[in-house]
């Protein structure tokens, strides 16, 4: 290699004449007994040492932390979400997911439809809704984000919502249930009979297993195309399944199976009991014909 002391040649050269001292360029190999000055040194990602061409590998310099870089890379790969994973054949629960856009039913991560991850809201979308303006990204709270950065925590919101619900539930009970009178039982029987006559539901549910309920969607916490209705459900169903059917009947947007946060989740408020129902409870154990249930969104866990 030519140095600053080398006189310039009139022939074309494949290198540039350096004006600086050679010792200021490159780094010395850190391998014991080598210490050679390398102008293009290599950095070991496991021990963070600097080595020459001959000792650049973990084996070459007998790395004291051999394998750490490879292990860290494997761990990062297993934790990172796959945004463009594809699988052949018909989509299943194991090979496909649904686009995170509320109104989109496209299955993504399949052979025919890839999924695109949004780095801002941490959700996956189909190609049609991949752009931020197409899925209203600015209005979404990123999945995994700290709630304190976006206002009150979910626990605080749930506590405030439940306090409001209890007051609202007492007023609702007074309107739904007849006042205590000698004819209270007879009045309730007549009301239940009228409910059974007008109610709708799955015709496959046997009559003896039906529980007839008034169903409403509270306007302050959710929106629906039908504000209320009268329906029957199977006593053997879980509250979660009853909620899915009620939301479908009232045409309420149901995001419970999309894996979103609590602020998007629907829950059932039992007016007569004055509490939120757990998804795992059985409908026939917590409700009797003539009760009223209300669909609410973002009110926190039942407990």
Automatic annotation (TrEMBL):
GO CC annotation terms, alphabetical: cytoplasm
Pfam families, per database record: UBL_ZFAND1, zf-AN1
Q: Name one GO molecular function term.
A: zinc ion binding
Q: Where is the AN1-type domain?
A: 23-71, 93-145
Cited InterPro entries: AN1-like_Znf, UBL_ZFAND1-like, Znf_AN1
**Keyword terms:** Metal-binding, Zinc, Zinc-finger
Q: Which Gene3D superfamilies match?
A: AN1-like Zinc finger
Q: What is this protein called?
A: AN1-type domain-containing protein
Q: What organism does the record attribute this protein to? A: Cladonia borealis
Q: Tell me the organism's taxonomic lineage.
A: Eukaryota, Fungi, Dikarya, Ascomycota, Pezizomycotina
